[in-house]
Design goal:
By secondary structure, the protein is an alpha+beta fold. It is 46% helix and 16% strand. The strands form four sheets. A four-stranded antiparallel sheet has the order 9-4-11-10. A four-stranded antiparallel sheet has the order 5-8-7-6, sandwiched between helices. The chain has a three-stranded antiparallel sheet with strand order 2-1-13. The two termini are 43 Å apart.
């Protein structure tokens, strides 16, 4: 775990999608615009409009919704004031406004899914839809959903705009070195204890009969859709892809989207309205329906069906894993050699089974931030001890047996440039991205109409939203 100084805290806490980011504030009188008509000024009071940024407005109730959203994501709001929340919303509107100017498009299906999740939390917290409507001062559920959908869409537009700003920002080794040198020695962060872990994966074999059953079912679904059935409905019913089931198998992808190669190859070979033949990836068997081609992006739906594992295949996989463990313990073969020659996981077998931390993209796993399931399997392992094969079920890949070994331990220590380069580079990159966001914001302030209601001009903003 990092124990940062003031400088490091600033870098770590200024995340770009947060509702409480500390940004360069927008100034109501910093741009020359036509005066707002008195009739509109009066309307501000009546409608509860407390600020305007470009084409967007901020309502008093938007602050309430923002607080509830943070709670819905498990965050605490006890130290956030209404003025601080307004500051975040103003920045969000600025990004969303510019996203529209730059023709950034977000999927309505994606927004609807998030809205449903947030609404479920609201219902759980408040007890009923009537109480939700009362809390947000809405007369009907339709009005509330329309309003809430727009808020979430603006947030997504803001996030996409931020990503566009930082997407091409890179950090060089020289910049990383200079960043590290600027940190006073007594302010260097402390990095927590870490582990390097290797694994061997044994997957049960799927029978040819089961594969053919899946392929035949997918062909049957394809025929039904071609005869008029809804692909979206079929996806909701049949897909084993939990991430897209609620949206009827919907995804929006481009060439850079991190999908497996086989999936993208098929998707980009289709014409609008075409349904693919069943094809196989590491996750199972798919069919894809290409709905729209929008420039370099595809809007598609897919159905994933994962073959079922028989008890016999599962038993054989367990016996194979047990035998591999014994051979390693008997010194017949090293763990790394066994991983390279016997593991069924392509991603790790080439480097001797070494796991890559998905959050940092290096080989170290900080104990306090480790996935609970993984931590439970390795926390009691001694150096070079091989774990008992354990059965796990991945939502995407199905059932498999895993054998784990801790290959290296790194004790808690003060940041060291050579040993912790990856972490230091990430901190340097974040600082550079924050600087780019700040510079962009300063430039857009002067191009955007901004007005803050007098009721909130008494806020003690950290930055100068009210420059006169």
């Amino acid at each position: 775990m990092i124990v940062p100084t003031k400088k490091i805290i600033t870098i770590l806490l200024l995340t770009f999608s947060s509702l409480i980011s500390n940004a360069q504030e927008i100034i109501a009188d910093s741009v020359k615009v036509k005066p707002t008509p008195k009739s509109n000024a009066n309307k501000i009071k009546i409608d509860g409009i407390i600020a305007t940024v470009g084409d967007y407005v901020v309502l008093d109730s938007d602050i309430d919704k923002a607080f509830l959203e943070i709670q819905g994501q498990g965050g605490s709001v006890k130290d956030i004031t209404r003025c601080q929340m307004l500051s975040s919303l103003l920045k969000e509107k600025l990004f969303a406004h510019q996203a529209i100017q730059d023709s950034i498009i977000v999927s309505d299906a994606e927004i609807k899914e998030k809205m449903d999740q947030q609404l479920d939390y609201m219902l759980e917290q408040l007890g009923s839809m009537d109480k939700v409507l009362q809390y947000f001062k809405k007369s009907s559920e339709d009005d509330f959903r329309t309003d809430f959908f727009e808020i979430l869409k603006q947030q997504r537009l803001a996030s996409e705009m931020q990503q566009k700003i930082i997407s091409e920002i890179e950090i060089t080794p020289e910049e990383t070195r200079n960043f590290f040198k600027k940190i006073p020695e007594n302010e260097l962060p402390q990095f927590g204890a870490e582990l390097e872990i290797a694994q061997i994966v044994i997957k049960p074999k799927i029978s040819e009969e089961e594969k053919q059953r899946i392929i035949s079912k997918l062909k049957e679904i394809k025929k039904e859709v071609q005869e008029g059935a809804s692909f979206k409905t079929r996806a909701v019913i049949y897909t084993d892809d939990r991430a897209s089931a609620a949206t009827g198998g919907f995804y929006k992808i481009n060439k850079k989207t991190p999908f497996v190669k086989e999936f993208k190859d098929v998707a980009f070979s289709l014409q609008e309205g075409e349904i693919s033949e069943p094809f196989e990836t590491m996750f199972g068997y798919h069919i894809i329906y290409l709905e729209k081609i929008k420039g370099l992006e595809l809007e598609l739906r897919h159905i994933l069906m994962m073959p079922k594992v028989s008890p016999e295949s599962l038993k054989e996989a367990k016996e194979k894993a047990d035998l591999i463990k014994k051979r390693i313990e008997d010194k017949e073969i090293t763990f790394a050699e066994a991983a390279r020659t016997m593991s069924d996981e392509k991603e790790t077998k080439a480097n001797g089974g070494t796991l890559i931390n998905p959050k940092t993209q290096d080989t170290r796993f900080e104990l306090t931030k480790m996935d609970p399931e993984l931590y439970g399997q390795v926390s009691n392992l001694k150096d070079n001890e091989v774990s008992i094969p354990y059965l796990m079920e991945d939502p995407k890949e199905g059932k498999m047996y895993k054998i784990l070994m801790v290959t290296n331990r790194i004790d808690q220590h003060t940041a060291d440039y050579s040993k912790d380069y990856t972490k230091i580079r990430e901190l340097a990159l974040k600082e550079k991205q924050i600087s780019a966001i700040s510079k962009w914001t300063d430039e857009k302030i002067n191009e955007t109409y901004i007005r803050i209601n007098a009721d909130y001009q008494g806020c003690d903003f950290e930055s100068n939203w009210l420059k006169k």
